[in-house]
Amino acid sequence: MKRRIPALVTAALALAFLFPVSLLPTTATAADGPTVKVSKSQAGTGSSIIVTGTGWPRKALLMMLICGRSSPSRGVIGGTNSCANADGRAVTTDTQGAFSQSLPVVEPPVPCPCVVHVATVTGSSDTAADAVFQVAGHPVEPLPESDGTGRLSVLTDPRLDGSSGLLTWFGAPPTRTLVLTVGNLGTAAVKDPVFQVGTSHGVFAPQWDEQQWQGTIQPGGKARVELPVSLASGAHGDYSVSLKYDGKVLAEQPWGVGRPWGVTLFWVLAGVVVPAALFRVGMAVVDRVRPRGPGGQHAVRRDRGPRRLRLPELTLRMPKVGERDGNSPPAGASSTLPWFTPDADPGAVPDPRTDTEADTDADTDTHLNLGDLDPGTPTTNAMNTTNSKGNT
C-alpha cells in the first residue's frame, strides 16, 4: 500500500499537466456578473428574438431594449436616448436569477452597431449587460473615438451642500449641490467630462441625468466638481445620490428629505376657513332675504317666551310706600256684599240688644264717618251717591 501512494500522486500530477485547468468545468462565469444571450445575431424589423440571461439578482425586474451606437465594451453611448424605449419589454428573474423572454426587433433612433441592453429596474444599484445584435437593413456607423485615456477617480468623500427654504416646506422641488474632488489617474488630460448624476428612492434604480462639467483635468491633477441635484415637487423620504463617469459609479451619498408640512398645514386651514366663510356668507344671505316688520325692522319671533323686565322697569312697576291704588277699596270698607247684612244671614245669632239701641249706634257711626271724611275723596263721593239712591 505504501508503494502505491507515490504512484497515484505521480499519475495525478501528470494528468494536471496534460489537461490544463482552463479546460475543466468551473462556475467562474456566474461570479463574473450577469450575462445576456440572444437567439439570433441578426434579424429584421417585424420579427422577434429570444433573450436569455443568467447570474442576475433573484426576483428582480429587468428591462430589455434594443440600442444603437453601442458596444459591450463601451456600453450605450448617449444613454437610453439611443434606445427604442417604446418597444422595450420587462421581465422578472426566477429564484435562480435566470430569465427568458421574447423581444420584438425594431430600429433604434441612432445608427448601429447595436446591442440588446438589459438592466435592472429595481434594486439599490443598477446592474446591466449587453449582447451584440444587428438589425437588418439599419444603417451602421463607426463609434465615436474615445477622448484620450484619462481616468477619473474620487479623492474625497462627496457631500451635499445647500438647505431647504420656505418654498420647499410648501412643496417646492428640493435642490442640493453635489461637491467632491476628483483626480486624473490617466496619461491624458480630461476636458469637459460628462458625468451622470442619479437619484434613487427606496428599492427603485437610480434615474440618471447627464451633466457636463466645464474644465480640464491634467494628468495627475485634481479638481473640485460641483454638480446640481434636484428632486420632484413634494418629494420626501430617504434618497440616494450617485455619480457615474464612463460607465463606472464613482460615489454615492445618502440624502434625507423632510416632509413638506406646509402643504398639510394649508389643507388643514382650508378645511377650517372655507366652511367658516361659507357659513358667514349664508347667514348674510338669510339676513337679507328675511321679511321685515312695519317699521322697517326685521320681524320679531313671537314664540320667545315671557319677556324679562329690566331693573329700571321693575322698579317703576313696584308699588310705592305710603301710596294707595285708586282701584283698591279703602281700609275701612267691608268686604260684605251690599245685599247681605249680618242680620239677614240665616245662620247669624241675633243681637241681644234692642232695636232702638242698634239703630242709635248705627246712626252715630254714620254721622261720625261722614264728618271725618274729606268731601273730595272717592270714598265720600261713593257714600253720598249711595245715600242719595237710598233716599230716593
Describe the overall structure:
This protein is an alpha+beta fold and 392 residues long. 23% of the residues lie in helices and 28% in strands. The protein contains 7 helices and 20 strands. The protein has helices at residues 4-18, 28-32, 166-169, 261-289, 311-317, 355-372, 378-391, and strands at 35-38, 42-43, 48-54, 61-67, 70-71, 75-76, 89-92, 99-104, 114-120, 128-135, 152-154, 159-161, 175-184, 190-191, 194-201, 207-212, 216-217, 222-230, 237-245, 248-257. The strands form 6 sheets. Strands 2-10-9-4-7 form a 5-stranded mixed β-sheet, with no helix packed on it. β15 and β16 form a beta hairpin. The model is unreliable at 1-6, 8-31, 362-374 and 377-392 (pLDDT under 50).
